[in-house]
Amino acid sequence: MKLLREPLVHFVIAGVVLFSAYAWLNGSRPASDGVEPVRISAGQIQWLRQTYSSQWLRPPDANELQGLVNDLVNEELLAREAQTMGLGEDDTIVRRRLAQKLKFLVEDTSRLAEPTDAELRQYFEANAARFEDSPRVSFTQIYFNPETRKDAAEDAGLVLAGLSANAGDDGAELGDRFLLEAEMRQVDRQAIANAFGDEFADALLTSQLGKWVGPLKSGYGTHLVFVSARDPVRKPAFEAVRDEVIAEWRRESEQKVSADYLARLRGKYGVELDDSVKAQLEPLPAADVLMR
After folding, report:
1. Distance of CA 153 to the CA centre of its chain
2. Distance CA 189, CA 205 (A)
3. Per-residue pLDDT, 88
4. CATH 3.40.50.2000 describes domain 134-230
5. Which of 5, 101, 149, 244 to pair with 231, CA 20 to 30 A apart?
6. Are 151 and 229 in contact (CB under 8 A)?
């Protein structure tokens, strides 16, 4: 298992996969005149059958299979001649497709290494914050519409002063009509951010409990907020989030394998930018460049 996680092994496996795929699709053969003939393998026939069956929910009959083979041969002939003529050079679509296929092959090699339960637990502990339950907040808000008020923030400040002087006042009738509920209970941060924005959500997670605060800005305008309860962050048991942990582990492994492979390709081929290009680009950390 340890050997399978070594980056060098990933690259070797990727090379084997690429070579095998090429051999499977094209066969190995130069003809006597130096031109390689188009060959159709049993694997390709099986692929044609499976593709047809997936689309039409039945296998192809003899005539249909012959038509599929003819289409495949024609496609290979046209693709080969187009390549010979250089039609794929400087073609954005062709370049992206080839790059995408290689990227998928490289990322697939990371899936050959499966983590042990102990490794997953170690990953879970090292990245505990990713799997914590978001704190839940219960709050009441008063909305001040900037489109109908001369200075919504100033009006909110005046109302806040009155609420602070009269702690028993719930303030329900002091604001403007709002399309969302004035009172929300046990709402997590993401739900608050979806409704009001990230800045508003973060403010609620740090606002003083049992006291009107503000003005706070949202995507709608200005608010005063009274946070009545806030549950602490809860760390779940490993068993409860094991599927999430392994999904994150795999995603991170794929990214690392891809970044390592791209770093090796940069070393192999080199990358040069014209001075005029460099002047137009913001400098990026190497890791960000490799992950793109």
Report:
1. 38
2. 8
3. 75
4. no
5. 244
6. no
Nearest to 38 by CA among 5, 9, 71, 61: 71
In angstroms, rounded to a whole number, what is the distance separating the alpha carbons of residues 280 and 275? 9
**Best CA proximity match to 194, nearest among 210, 180, 211:** 180
- Tell me the C-alpha distance between 188 and 125, whole Å: 23
DSSP, collapsed to helix, strand or coil, labels residue 141 as: strand
172: left (phi over 0), alpha (psi -120 to 50) or beta: alpha
Number of neighbouring beta carbons within 10 Å of residue 172: 10
The mean pLDDT values, 10 residues at a time, for the chain of 292 residues are: 49 50 48 68 86 89 86 82 78 82 76 77 80 81 89 88 69 78 85 87 85 88 89 76 83 82 80 71 55 47
Q: Is residue 159 within 8 Å of 188, Cβ to Cβ?
A: no
Partnered with residue 144 across adjacent β-strands are: 222
pTM (2 decimals)? Answer: 0.45
State the amino acid at position 21 in one-letter form: A
Distance CA 98, CA 34 (A): 26
Alpha-carbon torsion (266, 267, 270, 272), positive or negative: positive
Angle at 77 between CA 73 and CA 78, to 5 degrees: 120
- 27: left (phi > 0), else alpha (psi -120 to 50), else beta? left
Phi, psi of 7 (to 5 degrees): -55, -40
